[in-house]
Automatic annotation (TrEMBL):
Positions of the FAD-binding FR-type domain: 222-322
Keyword vocabulary terms for this entry: 2Fe-2S, FAD, Flavoprotein, Iron, Iron-sulfur, Membrane, Metal-binding, Oxidoreductase, Transmembrane, Transmembrane helix
The organism's taxonomic lineage, starting at the top: Bacteria, Bacillati, Actinomycetota, Actinomycetes, Kitasatosporales
Name listed for the protein in its UniProt record: Oxidoreductase
Regions that span the bilayer: 24-44, 50-71, 92-113, 133-155, 167-185, 197-217
Chief place where the protein resides: membrane
Entry's Gene Ontology molecular function annotations: 2 iron, 2 sulfur cluster binding; flavin adenine dinucleotide binding; metal ion binding; oxidoreductase activity
PROSITE patterns: FAD_FR
Example of a GO cellular component annotation carried by this entry: membrane
UniProt xrefs under InterPro entries: FAD-bd_FR_type, Fe3_Rdtase_TM_dom, FNR_nucleotide-bd, MRET, OxRdtase_FAD/NAD-bd, Riboflavin_synthase-like_b-brl
Length: 445
């Protein structure tokens, strides 16, 4: 039997995700303390409502800058935390921005109304007409309210991603308007040059991170690597593999388990960016993605011509061996979720058990490759077929196939329903959460 030479398994002693998460929390806490200090140094206003309103406005601005950092797609953070988790934090931070800025607007309006004996509505109109930057703040808050409304779960389920994304882009308009309001009317800007420098730095870093991660880095990588379609290979009636080649791919920092946002630059596809995982470990010469036709866009990949230019953003994702904690692993795949699992098997050291869940044998994409790779690496492969009910990945079945599953890392990828069921089974089997690795495709605007 032929065996592949693999690196010795070296589980992480310090979890990269914890390091990155702790760093983000510490960064936010330190800046919150600095904001409070500058606020106190600026002095207090005539009544409590105005004081609280100004403080809420400052923390709303800080959260807005932090929200930009979370969605900047910076490689160091993305590889350690994952785009799905960063996007989730971005979403909840966004609701924090919405409520702190609404509170800011209400407290400021009622505070000044109390001091002037005007009604709240008249006071707001008066502020907008007489105070520089307030009208821009009203427009910014209105945009944030609309964006918050369409980001609620009930609205997201009813909106096409493209529609939601287009509306979400107005966040950047709101950011610029809010910043100019802060420059014009913020007490910390007018009372302290040090505080002014601090806020310019905060906004410069946040906007610079977005510019770097979302524009500069993707453009630079694509200009450097000059990606093109090398071949399109049918794997079944509704699944194809696309091989992409380019220059200096050995210098592209892609790892097995990661994904790219792929744009195939044809006349009818250049504007579509789709997240597809690598289905083979990067070898420095080609990148491979394997896609199941679930719509017109993915079905059209079968007709790509060799030589088609490709614009790829990434690599993204924390679903890699960087997060290993144990010498041995279990890889659980469902349907076309086998693509990153197949790539991970190629990259993993130590003993591995692969469990591939499909409805029928004919749905087992890349099964022959998995079988050959498992044989070469001395891994176990279980093909589990049958209907969803009864659950064939229930705790008892998993324990039967992998008796020592609680002592292994578990990498999981598949349809949402299957992943939820498997995560529940892993909990019933007392598999520690730090040993369970999964990632859901989740994109923010």
């Amino acid at each position: 039997m032929t065996t592949l030479q693999t690196r010795p398994a070296v589980p992480a002693t310090i979890r990269p995700r914890i390091v990155a998460r702790t760093g983000l929390y510490a960064l936010l806490a330190a800046n919150a303390a600095v904001v409070a200090w500058f606020f106190v140094q600026a002095g207090f206003a005539s009544n409590a409502l105005i004081v609280l309103g100004r403080l809420c406005g400052l923390y709303g601005a800080l959260l807005m800058a932090f929200q930009l950092l979370l969605v900047a797609r910076l490689p160091w953070l993305d590889r350690r935390i994952g785009m799905d988790r960063l996007t989730s934090w971005h979403r909840w931070t966004g609701f924090g921005v919405l409520w702190t800025l609404l509170t800011h607007a209400v407290f400021i309006t009622f505070g000044y109304a109390q001091a002037s004996s005007m009604g709240p509505v008249n006071q707001l109109v008066n502020l907008a007409e007489t105070t520089e930057g307030v009208l821009r703040a009203v427009v910014a808050l209105s945009l944030i309210v609309v964006i918050g409304a369409v980001s609620a779960r009930w609205a997201r389920r009813r909106l096409a991603y493209e529609t939601w994304h287009f509306i979400h882009l107005y966040t950047y308009v709101a950011v610029v308007l809010a910043f100019t309001h802060q420059v014009a009317a913020g007490t910390t800007f007018t009372s302290s040059s040090t505080a002014k420098t601090y806020w310019y730095t905060v906004w410069g870093v946040a906007l610079g991170a977005v510019l770097l991660g979302r524009l500069v880095l993707p453009l630079w990588r694509n200009l450097r690597h000059q990606l093109r379609v090398e071949a399109v290979v049918p794997e079944s009636d509704d699944v194809v593999s696309v091989y992409v080649t380019g220059r200096d791919l050995d210098r592209l920092p892609a790892r097995a388990g990661q994904f790219f946002l792929w744009r195939f630059l044809t006349r009818d596809r250049w504007w579509q960016a789709n997240p597809f995982s690598l289905s083979a470990a990067p070898d420095g010469r080609t990148l491979r993605l394997t896609v199941k036709a679930v719509g017109a866009g993915s079905a059209g990949l079968r007709h790509l011509a060799p030589g088609t230019r490709v614009f790829a953003e990434g690599p993204y994702g924390a679903f890699t061996t960087l997060h290993r904690t144990r010498p041995d692993a279990v890889l659980i795949a469902g349907g076309v979720g086998v693509t990153p699992i197949r790539a991970l098997l190629e990259d993993l050291a130590g003993h591995a058990v692969v469990i591939y869940r499909v409805a029928a044998d004919r749905d087992a994409v890349l099964h022959d490759e998995l079988r050959d790779l498992a044989l070469a690496k001395g891994a176990e492969l279980h093909l589990v077929t049958g209907p969803v009910v009864p659950d064939r990945l229930a705790p008892g079945e998993l324990a039967r196939m992998v008796p020592d599953i609680a002592d292994r890392d578990v990498f999981l990828c598949g349809p949402p329903g299957m992943m939820t069921a498997v995560l529940r089974s892993l909990g019933d089997l007392d598999v520690p959460g730090r040993q369970v690795h999964f990632e859901r495709f989740s994109l923010a605007g």
